[in-house]
Design brief:
With 130 residues, the chain is mainly α. Helix content is 80%, strand content 0%. The chain has one domain. The protein contains five helices and no strands.
Length: 130
């Protein structure tokens, strides 16, 4: 196992938070900000950043396990791993939660699309800094 690229982990988490702010704000205007403005603003930032940081740590560990030699030869693994985690773990969980809450289908698609784009953005950071 190679070393985890901690700079990439932090930047990937930050980019995922930025994608979420844009996705739920000016891009789709879902009416639900990712970071709603209330008196506990820093608490909301902390929770969102922590969730994205945990995802980035997991991806960083996965890429360290694969190793830089393999990733240099097969750079598509960055996107296959990050997109695969979104498509086969995160998105089904989000979709099922929305179904249980009887959320309208378009909101489900928008939220699931966010998770795919956020994970692929994290994969992009690991690829760029790999």
């Amino acid at each position: 196992m190679g070393p985890v690229n901690w700079i990439a982990v932090l930047l990937a988490a930050a980019l995922a938070v930025a994608v979420g702010i844009v996705w739920h704000g000016p891009l789709f205007r879902t009416g639900r900000q990712m970071l709603p403005g209330n008196s506990k603003k820093t608490g909301n930032y902390t929770v969102v950043a922590l969730v994205m940081l945990l995802a980035a740590i997991m991806l960083g560990h996965n890429f360290a396990r694969i190793g830089s030699a393999t990733l240099d030869v097969k750079p598509w693994l960055y996107f296959m791993m990050s997109g695969g985690l979104a498509l086969f773990f995160t998105i089904p969980a989000v979709w099922l939660t929305h179904m249980r809450n009887r959320t309208e289908p378009m909101r489900r698609v928008i939220d699931c699309g966010f998770w795919l784009v956020a994970y692929l953005a994290m994969g992009l950071v690991f690829w760029a800094l790999g």
